[in-house]
Amino acid sequence: MNKLDLDKNTILRCRISAKKIADDIHGFINQHTTVSVERTVCRLLGIDGVDELDIPIPNRLVDEIYQAGNLGKGISVYIAAGLKLYDNSMARFISAFTAGEVRLSDLKLLSEQEAENILRSQFNKTLAKIKLNKGIRKELQDKYPGRETKLYVIVATGNIYEDVIQAKAAAAQGADIIAVIRSTGQSLLDYVPYGVTTEGYGGTYATQENFRIMRAALDEMTEKTQRYIQLVNYASGLCMPEIAAMAAVERLDILLNDSMYGIIFRDINMQRTFIDQYFSRLINAYAGIIINTGEDNYLTTADAVEEAHTVLASQFINEAFAKQARLPEELMGLGHAFEINPEIENSFLYEVAQAEMAREIFPNAPLKYMPPTKHITGNVFRAYMQNTMFNMATTMTNQSIHLLGMMTEAIHTPFMQDRFLALENAKTVQGALKMWREDIEYKHDGIIRSRAVEVLNMAEKLLDEVKDSGLFKALENGVFANVKRPYDGGKGLDGVVKKDKDYFNVIANRMEAELSED
Amino acid sequence: MNKLDLDKNTILRCRISAKKIADDIHGFINQHTTVSVERTVCRLLGIDGVDELDIPIPNRLVDEIYQAGNLGKGISVYIAAGLKLYDNSMARFISAFTAGEVRLSDLKLLSEQEAENILRSQFNKTLAKIKLNKGIRKELQDKYPGRETKLYVIVATGNIYEDVIQAKAAAAQGADIIAVIRSTGQSLLDYVPYGVTTEGYGGTYATQENFRIMRAALDEMTEKTQRYIQLVNYASGLCMPEIAAMAAVERLDILLNDSMYGIIFRDINMQRTFIDQYFSRLINAYAGIIINTGEDNYLTTADAVEEAHTVLASQFINEAFAKQARLPEELMGLGHAFEINPEIENSFLYEVAQAEMAREIFPNAPLKYMPPTKHITGNVFRAYMQNTMFNMATTMTNQSIHLLGMMTEAIHTPFMQDRFLALENAKTVQGALKMWREDIEYKHDGIIRSRAVEVLNMAEKLLDEVKDSGLFKALENGVFANVKRPYDGGKGLDGVVKKDKDYFNVIANRMEAELSED
Amino acid sequence: MKIRPYGDTMSDGKVQVSFTLPCLADESGIEAAKILARKMGMNDPNVVHVEAIGEGFSFFVVYGSVIHEVETDSIKVEKVETPTMSREEIEAIIEAEFDRDIIFIGASTGTDAHTVGIDAIMNMKGFAGHYGLERYKHIKAYNLGSQVSNEEFVRQAKILKADVLLVSQTVTQKDVHLKNMVNLVELLEAENIRDKVLLIAGGARITHELAKELGYDAGFGPKKYAEDVASFAILELIHRKKRVQ
Amino acid sequence: MKIRPYGDTMSDGKVQVSFTLPCLADESGIEAAKILARKMGMNDPNVVHVEAIGEGFSFFVVYGSVIHEVETDSIKVEKVETPTMSREEIEAIIEAEFDRDIIFIGASTGTDAHTVGIDAIMNMKGFAGHYGLERYKHIKAYNLGSQVSNEEFVRQAKILKADVLLVSQTVTQKDVHLKNMVNLVELLEAENIRDKVLLIAGGARITHELAKELGYDAGFGPKKYAEDVASFAILELIHRKKRVQ
Ligand code: B12
Ligand code: B12
Ligand SMILES: Cc1ncc(COP(=O)(O)O)c(C=O)c1O
Ligand SMILES: Cc1ncc(COP(=O)(O)O)c(C=O)c1O
């Protein structure tokens, strides 16, 4: 549908700039790896578990090579060597390693070809599992397609079992998508916690076991409700690709996975983030997991009217990075948000303009639309009204992934009743405005169309500038969310390693190859 | 503005039918008077107060003539005779009358001319006061024009002093219009209670003293808020014209004053109602009081989708009756309501269609738009959402008098906080959607336009039928609100009196003459 | 079992409260709101919103955990114990047990003008897909409308020889319904017919418990339809008939 | 004066309450809700809405009158007692009373990543039309950002010779902020600098009362801006300086 009549050429020029921006970074990405990328390789080779100090084995393995200054070769070849030593038994190799019986650095390295041969049976198992998951997901989605605009709510009790109670109630009430929010602080951990967890702050730790428990609960609800209930977690922070790998194995459906969020909102080093995001997205592409980008966050620190174009510019950049990672448009859940101060005159018109614009510029993307948060106060009734307006904007502009606003947004992570009321609000609005979008037109030169044109033009200009300065510089200058980050600052830079000439990543190679075939 | 492109000829045919319908009834009205009409004459001649049994003096006077079978002459001439006897001193005449010193029936009747001469100084005082009020209102409205769509809330504590507290708080929070809801049962009283009242059920008694108290409070708030705060009461029930007279004297601004509401919703006899409504509206026309009609009520007993056209048909009829009473369009606050079950698919589109249709068919009328009530439950949050949608529909269609929905609609008459929250909701929506109406178009052959056309066509058909059967018959058949009423049934028929050849109503004559001059 | 409110952790006791106080929206006002919340049993109340709402009043929203628990094992509720049958079952049972029609009269009594509720129960077309009593074979249903005085209602009950009296009450402000409902019982007793009829009340705020308390045989609130009241009435009439025999 | 909540009649005690109970949405569930409401002090609670919200839980909305009163005369609140001055006044007073710049450092500490609050106080452009501390003459303001550990914060305080420490805390779930705030006080005491600095907390759920309780000099919540905290800090520093002299 074309309601805004935006200029196709401007959009094309934005895409060209964004591609150039991402390509530049991609040159850098190609030359580097990170501790997280290599740990991910371990995980996809089937290595899991923790040692007696609760340190994950992937961290133990990668850290040893890193300390030895050899991570530029990639972990793959070391694992292959270890496996060879232990007759291709991963279990024996790992137990010898943790027992200190073997040091990776002492291993005799193999050729890439031999290493790959040895590793093949390991990664084949994991990749087969991931493909199986993809198949199951597709089957369930075909069987239980559900509504077009999916209703998304979060659980965040800190205790995975409590989360399950809340998630099941939400699904029973009509939620299509459940996200388990992470505990504060997890994104800055340079490892992924292990096992079931029942303590977290503002969210629940993302662990593979927690993923498994929630997936099982939601599968149960899928059958009960006859709607495929999707599961979401976060592949952001210092462990982007590792979480993507765990999610692929446990059949998560959506991951928050932005190319720049960690830089801007978690002060994670930009080099680190760009390298990590590439591999995490490659895995998502392989596993059929929808990514969600985080442009909505910009509007929590920057003004939603003034900085609207930065959201659009960032969407183009996220799209360009996603394409490099071979993600099809159908998996690009670009983010935006309803964050204009409702006291501003005509704010609703601006919101609709922005949402419709995103819808029309990215017609195949499962757009993620975030609710008002910044201008929500403790007046829960007012919040419920703001959420009604937001729900109406969503339906009027046919968004895909509809995050529900909570009336207690300004107070606490959602209670069961908050979620119930949010779902009721959204369901009612969806029905009452079902054909609205088909029924109305925006006037030529009206506020809505003019606003969309204005934002698009500003985004074009910004992309053009960023193209010239380079994205690293743009981030240093605080182009997004009004936040400035130094090239060498932030967390996790020490985990970035320049690839050696003989660097070898058995998983990336395989995934890239397979995805390029498609 | 013309967004629906409705057929002008259809609208014209509706108006022609409605005029015919009202004209037919008008023939009947002209030949009759009622006890209430005559009591109103007393009041406008300055007669007020109660006797020792709390019976209002106007009732005492009219009842005596009525009992004697002479009300067909009208009360005017009797009052004139009484005055003549007591040297034009109303006070002396009335005190003699209540003391039983003089019986009206014993008085020697005068010629119409002489009677009028005697009465002139009496009614001139009252009419001057009414004109002064009209001037004051105009002056205040010019000085403090306020917003285009006026926000209207009710108070209904039963106690006028408590009502004042609530009304002032509401005005401070942004209310433009305050209605004091009447106690249950008052509309069936064939007299108007007297003096200050502090006990009522579901509302506060409409008395002249209560009017005065509230008017003073709102005048105070007008100065404080710099917005002219309008006062509303109800000229429905068995005392339609009397309340109109009181309201004119106390500078009320709006009166609920439908031509058929009492018949349908209070089972008041239809003959009685039609006669009473004419005189009450004549007074309103004279006093510059906006009338509000009650079509919204139809949708509380009949289905809002199926019976939408009866609302429109009734609006045409109310308009025709109003014209007969010489009300200008600017005083015709025709009513309608947002009462479609929100669970119905596309209900919001139907609501907008209906509201926009009313706006375009009655472009100069200060349309009164009522909130959802029937489909409001005890879930106050859901109610708040429904009210948000309603507020949006109001702004999208530029209604004039915007009755605010209360989140506690299904529970109790409003608490102070309910009103505050309702005002906040409406104000925010008004701002956020300020230019929406100018900015969008409804598609040709879309749901909204088609629905409006369908409703208009059905209304035309219905009006055509009613024109043929006559309105009395239509009411007997339950055309409106699914309620059937017999011609001779209901309350108050015994108060209807056929005019004698020498019937004389000094006030009606004067008002009709003055209004025809304008 | 002891239960407590649930926010996001079992038994966390979380509740949401809002109210208006006649005080300012300042620190002292907030403290007053907290004191009130504590008196209501909320631990550590969180005044999440305060706002002046005009002329010396302030509006508060409070969240917190109540210390109270509810023991559910000991809960006993007055509820209509007879099962709800279908229209067809009810018709069949009348046919089997009585050799005459059963007479229902109904009204919205006193000054109450709300008819939608009583119409929902009585009118042919019923409500929300449930046919009303007028459609039942072997039931004669007289709907007297609204604003029917208790005197008139009793008079009609006698004239029509009603078996079942249906009273609808919607307006409850200042407990006007209680006064009106009690007055009807008194009139019926004065006329010596209270025990000759079934007296049933209904309305949005009417519960069975309340109705029993006021001397009615049953009470029906929202989401009750003709079949609920007819089932109760017919089974109760049979029961009484048998008791007499 | 004794006050009670106000619905539509002075002192009617009306409150609105909502909560979720782990029970069914049936008569017994409604009774459980009523029992809870009565324990909260509501007379004659009116359960105006009940609805199953999935997997054994029900949502209730209750209205009623609480019996409780609040005596307002005896209310004493911990509040910041210093007046709020304008930026210009603050600058002038520093110039008059100190011969050096006053050093503020601020951060969102612990695992908390919310910066908008502390930025509102510190950044040049400020918030809602109130300039931040960076714009004040004679104030040097160092904003360390978010997720700053207490150890790092104390280290920087020493390096920068901070006079005033500004701590922002937004995430309060499971009282994570309390633990984090107390830990900072302990660290400062261990380093023997607690009494050499002004320690000030802020955030959406922070009150002055709470901050004092936790051993801070002051706390600032919503709708407090740079001039509020600067006024307090400067006046308090002057006060302390005078006390020492
Ligand atoms: C429709 C309506 C009206 C219509 C009534 C039209 C009519 N002919 O009935 C009109 C517009 C005329 C009206 C007028 C007034 N109304 Co009114 N009205 C409502 C409204 C919106 C819906 C009520 C309704 O129809 N519900 C649908 C029916 C089906 O539900 P129900 O009555 O509960 O019936 C069900 C059960 O309770 C049960 N039942 C009911 N009766 C019986 C009887 C028996 C025997 C049995 C077995 C079962 C049974 O079966 C039904 C089906 O399940 C409510 C608000 C709301 N959303 O609830 C306000 C409301 C009831 N009205 C209210 C008021 C105050 C008034 C007025 C007094 C206002 C005024 N001062 O002008 C006037 C009435 C004057 C008077 N003399 O009574 C208040 C009552 C407050 C209170 N608790 O005291 C309400 C709650 C609105 C409000 N918040 O102020 N009203
Ligand atoms: C914006 C925002 C974010 C942004 C933050 C961006 C940023 N760089 O700051 C993003 C999107 C990144 C975010 C993330 C998260 N958030 Co957040 N977020 C919000 C939101 C919407 C607004 C907060 C805000 O900016 N307010 C505006 C500022 C100006 O207000 P303020 O902080 O109160 O500051 C004022 C005063 O308090 C005072 N003040 C504040 N600090 C200080 C300090 C001093 C010294 C002084 C004097 C004064 C002072 O001055 C300011 C001006 O008056 C709130 C919800 C809401 N509407 O309140 C949730 C909210 C705070 N977030 C919440 C949560 C749980 C999170 C996450 C943990 C979710 C997750 N698991 O992923 C993560 C954070 C992870 C982490 N490690 O902390 C919860 C906290 C629940 C609780 N009470 O524990 C909230 C309430 C939302 C919710 N209901 O779940 N969030
Ligand atoms: C892309 C993205 N990643 C992650 C998060 C969550 O933050 P954290 O990574 O700290 O869990 C968000 C915010 O909601 C986000 O938008
Ligand atoms: C035209 C009209 N008159 C009067 C009323 C109020 O009823 P009553 O006349 O019983 O006070 C209404 C309903 O709100 C109405 O719409």
How would you characterize this protein structure?
The complex is a heterotetramer, with two copies of chain A (518 residues) and two copies of chain C (245 residues). Helix content of chain A is 53%, strand content 8%. Chain A contains 20 helices and twelve strands. Chain A has a nine-stranded parallel β-sheet with strand order 7-6-5-4-3-2-10-9-8. Chain A has a two-stranded antiparallel sheet with strand order 1-12. In chain A, strand 3, helix 8 and strand 4 form a beta-alpha-beta unit. The longest helix of chain A has 32 residues. The model of chain A has no long low-confidence stretch (mean pLDDT 97). With 245 residues, chain C is α/β, with parallel strands linked by helices. Chain C folds into two domains: 70 residues, D-lysine 5,6-aminomutase beta subunit KamE, N-terminal domain (Defensin A-like, 2-Layer Sandwich); 158 residues, Rossmann fold, CATH 3.40.50.280. In chain C, strand 9, helix 6 and strand 10 form a beta-alpha-beta unit. The longest helix of chain C has 19 residues. Chain C is elongated and about 70 Å long. Chain C starts with a strand and ends with a helix. The mean pLDDT of chain C is 95. Chains in contact: A-B, A-C, A-D, B-C, B-D, C-D. One cobalamin sits at the interface of chains D and A. One cobalamin (B12) sits at the interface of chains D and A.
Features:
heterotetramer, A: 518 residues, alpha/beta, 9-stranded parallel β-sheet, two-stranded antiparallel ribbon, 20 helices, 53% helix, C: 245 residues, Defensin A-like, 2 domains, 7 helices, 10 strands, elongated, binds cobalamin, binds pyridoxal-5'-phosphate
